[in-house]
Amino acid sequence: MAKVFSHIDESLREFIGKQAMFFVATAPSDGGRVNLSPKGYRDTFAVLDDHTVAYIDLFGSGAETIAHLRDNSRITIMFCSFTRNSRILRLFGTGRVVRPDEAEFDRIRRHFGTLHPGARAAIVVDVERIADACGFAVPYYELVDERPVLDAHHAKAPEEAYVRLVERTRRSIDGLPALEPDHPLPPSVEQ
What we know:
Residues 8-131 form the Pyridoxamine 5'-phosphate oxidase N-terminal domain. It is built from five helices and eight strands; from the N terminus they run E-H-E-E-E-E-H-E-E-H-E-H-H.
């Protein structure tokens, strides 16, 4: 059944690498809404070392994770197997936002392939607790393919669309600060 791990070992890296999606959960410090976001594109997640992971955050409908990390840095990432081998893995930790215009972003992006269009930031998580669970009640699903819709949307979006997205996501739905006004546009549309 449930087990706690001291670090992200090779078997956990292998499990993580096989998952086509993951979930990110954050919450503000004082009231407000808990945010739980599904994330796709398996090449947007990387294990950096035994206690550090990162994922490439893409422009989307909001910036709740960024706002919550700025507020208190708490984050949980969950992987859930939908195959015959049932397993749930949670990585509990503290996260931070690394913008594309920061030097650290270039070091982090080396852990990923080609950046997806619409890359907004890297979320880096210092993992403090690693625990799995059985997942016996999780249904079986078969992966058909990754959904190309977000990449296709970002690939054809004009620079003005990103300027509007930055403006629209300057605050979370609870009013917390999220993206700064000078947040860089994705690398593919910057001038």
